[in-house]
Amino acid sequence: MARLIIANIDYLVTVDRDRRIICDGALVIQDGRIVAVGKTGEVSIDKTTDEVIDGRGKLALPGVFDTHVHNAQQLGRGCGDEAYSGPERLFRRLWVVEAHMDKGDALCAARLAQVEMIRAGTTCFADPGSYFAAETAQAVKESGMRGMIARTVFDMGQTVMGSLPKGFFEPTDEAVGRADEMVAEFDGALDGRLKAWFSMRVPVACSDDLLRRLAKLAEKRGVGIIGHACENRDEVIASHLKYGMGDITRLEKLGLLGPNLLLLHMGWVDPKELHMLQKRDVKISLAPSASMHQAMGNVSHGKTPEMLELGLALSLGSDSAMSSNYLDAIRQAFLVVGGLHEARLDPKVLRPETAVEMLTINGARCMLWDDDLGSLEVGKKADVTMLDIMRPEWQPVHNPIANLVYCAHGGCADTVIVDGKILMRGGKVLTLNEHDLYEEAQDRAKSLIKRTGLEDVVKSIWPMH
Ligand SMILES: [Zn+2]
Fold first, then answer.
1. For 337-351, what is each residue's pLDDT tens digit?
2. Centroid of ligand 1 to alpha carbon of 226 (angstroms)
3. I want to staple 57 with a disulfide (CB 3.0 to 4.6 A). Which of 110, 122, 390, 430 is the partner?
4. d(CA 380, ligand 1 centre) in Å
5. Which residues place a Cβ less than 5 A from the ion ligand 1?
6. Is 201:193 a contact under the CB 8 Å cutoff?
7. How far, in Å, from the CA of 147 to the mean position of ligand 1?
């Protein structure tokens, strides 16, 4: 297999142990792994056998992680707008859309989600679960992305926050059995590009028995559990009313807290519970745009600086087209920094470098993938995001990390590489047919929204002629 060399990179952001930024840098990739990192002049190029990408006018960084993406919610874009976060958004909007989908909708949604992520420079996502794990896996096969999938397990039809849609919950045995089959089938598939974990969509809609069994199965299979927790105030109240305690205390009691647990949102964690997260090395994914869009209060009430102080691994997630409403991890980086500056009235509370760690090495830690991913170092897998910096919002460049977080966005992505394979080059996605996909998505989304009865929710309040 020919070597792939990326040379003349203006800024090569390694996120290695020393956090080196190499000017006029080069990367050499062989058989999907990085075999050399350095200055362009230090790399020998054989023009007869090597494929060479010119990195002039580009910034390269380790492949970007988006650690909270609901592939299946892509066709419902806008259905969560102006909905109160807990009882209204989840129970009357998002889950209603998911409950009305068929497999064709799910495959189309996952393809569309992954095109949106590739175009935003994302190489790896974590999906908190749906009833369409196989369709999400099929889209990963086609798109060439790296990802983690999970199968939804709900075993309670009634909660303090509301009722789940018909067909959206199962008896405990069936839920656990199907989730276990899915993990057995997909974990490690697609040459290791795919992980399959257990899902805990929302703790208040999962029985104690279900959660205990998920913890045991995850340990047996050697995989993780991904789930939402402390997402909004309604959910905290619901957990206290039903179980007499908040999510984290309950999860600790049931044996779920551990280094293989990735918790999403976490804005309403009780400060008294933070030490449990530290003791168990629990991983966390923040979703600032979903919080701002849905008035969750995770930015204003969250404990992000305190979690960082405790050494917890924090990463960033876009959530979904029905919550965020876009899949762009680099925009999340600005929001997590800017949001905290505003919430804490302190422009020094979080630096842009910390946000870039969340996008890269800490994303890898959260997905238990940091042995192979998260930095551009010899021996690691070749997942690379290259951004075009010959754009007005990038100029001039004094500090490339500050520009990346404060000025850039995912739309600056030019080239995306996973396992040494090029998924997008020069802004053109090479793995999926975007034009056909957009036409199919529009048709399917119209029909889906009609079936859910949410047409009035998504339409403009201004007259459309
Ligand atoms: Zn979510």
1. 999 999 999 999 999
2. 10
3. 390
4. 29
5. 319
6. no
7. 15
